[in-house]
Amino acid sequence: MSHVMFVSLICFSGFSQANQFNYGPGESQLGNSVMMVSNTRSIPCDVDKDSSRATVITCYTRPMPADNYVVQVSVDGTMIPQSNMCNGNYNSYYCSFYVSLKAAHTLLEQLVPEFSFLGSLITIRGMIFTDVYGSNTALSSNGLNVRILRYVKLTSDRTHSNFRSLPYLSTYFISALDKLAMFQSYAEIYSIFPSAGSLEGGTILTINGNYFDQTNSPARILVGGQDCPLLSLSNNVIICTVPAQPVTNRTLFGGRGLQLEVWNNTVPHTLDDVLAYDTSMPGYYTMWVDSSSYAWPANYNNFVARLSGFFTPTVTDDYRFYIRGDDRCALYFSQTGLPKDKVKIAYLTSARINESINTPFILSVYFLRYYIEILFQQYSSNAFVDLAIYQKNTSFTALQTPDAISEVQVINTQSIVLIEKQEICFVNWTSETPVKEVQQIVVNSSCFSLGYCAYLQYTLIYNNEKTAPISVDASSDVIQNALNAFDSIKPDSVVVTKTESASGSVYIVTFDSTRGDFNVLQYDTGGSNISISISEITQGKPGLDTFTLMWDGVTSSPLSANATAGQVNDELWGLLSAKCPSSINGYTEGPQVKYFRDYETAAEMVRNQRGTRVFNTEAFCGSYSLMTPQILFDSNDVTSSGLPYGNVSLLTYDTVSFFMFSLRVTSHIQRAVDHQARSRVR
């Protein structure tokens, strides 16, 4: 989400000017209003009335997601037609507004150096967006003091949560503390005292420096590769007790970095010859470098170099080493930490600027010191050597830092399809005398004492089928017809009788069926002030002349005990098929129904404006729906008799139902009707 406010200038003619400052009740529509509209959202652009004229509107954009927006302008409550915008090309570049994250923040592109001690000078390269170019302007156009003047003082905790810079992903790396960072600092050591002490240890060592702290982990001091127990620590001084001299005299470097040794004007026969070079060789000089990547100045040729030091992993893991250089280089590694135990694990015999050689994974243990040595030879052209170390496991992804590689896994599966077989067995199946199921519905409401209950309604439910809303004082025929419309009761039926009381009605529902026990009816009052109770008066008993199948709550029609395999097969397919209740699908064109289509059967779609009959979209009911039609009905369509339908009289046909259309219908409907009454659409 962008949090930077931009000024947009909209040039046109005919904008409101005289009415811009008409404030007050009933006048809010006067003046100019601007909306930024994309394919998925619309966001107001706040008009600056002082800066707007009859030909120019100035508005301030709000925080907006990155997207392409079309500018829509309303003048005195009337929207400017699209045909009057950019010569009819309203979504052209000149009438659009593009929001990008790159244009919404200060862009941080590079920070140099990435590693240094606190207080050192760093260089930050990027882009800053502001319309203030000097100190003669108090505020920028968004009302904020945004300017480029001298420097910004950084705090030690964090900058303000708003208006932060947007860094390029390349500025992030994984620090030695296994955290995302742009800059890694370290302490400085100025001196130690004393410089000599007892071989048996016990000397109190004072280390003077700067930026000593234990924010991320306890401080650890090593002398001769062994821990020097900490006595005290401040920002500038560390005091510890020196341990005894170790038994083995190991090669140990003190602080961070690598030792770089160079022999100028030297051309060895093989690169391995450099292993025997020492400080007495001609052209020798040495220095310390802070990185395992190093490049020499241009035209610095005909020399060999050696970088040596220790790799100390902060996490126990498998590590792979990559090396490249121009012209040739080799990498040695010692798992014991002793230089004498080093072995060559990678090498390049010729210049490969964009190619590196890597080693197998090497298990390295947390905080152990592994000696590494890089040999390098330069003939001519560019001179550089790079050593990179790849850690196998990390919690970071490539979306967080280019140092991470997102793992890609391929999952292959296979299965054996087995056709399920079920067997229905009737054992000792004999017919019995059936008993009809009888249930009682008691409906009470205070409206009965008032003598008017038509405004209160409820629904009855059986096996997830619901009736249409039923009036609380409905007749027995209304209840009976509603229940007989349920597919889960068909082909059986119910008979309903009604008796009235002072506070309500009592309905007796008799299931005219030999199926036996039926589930008790359920109800839904929708929060109305109605009291309903339903109970089973007589539990039905089956005659066992038929049976029904049930699959996932859907029941079949009754089947004879000696039904054929074909009859059972048809009922099973019926359980899986989509069905529509007769209240939706049971219509025939005639005096009450002008036009009816359910699209369950294929029909000729006149022209491509009638949409597409689809099976892969869930329909309201049934199996098919109509996708993206432009025309649903036309007065010139012909009936089954061959005559045109003609216009629709709303006095006779006052209801238009769209149950069977896909929710993806978005185009408008073209109708020819007699405007004799207001239609009712559901």
Automatic annotation (TrEMBL):
Record's keyword terms, sorted:
Signal
Do the record's keywords include Signal?
A: yes
Q: Which residues form the PA14 domain?
A: 253-403
Stretches of the chain forming a coiled coil according to its record: none
Q: Which organism is it from?
A: Erpetoichthys calabaricus (Rope fish)
Q: Which residues form the signal peptide?
A: 1-18
Q: What is this protein called?
A: PA14 domain-containing protein
Pfam families the UniProt entry points to: TIG
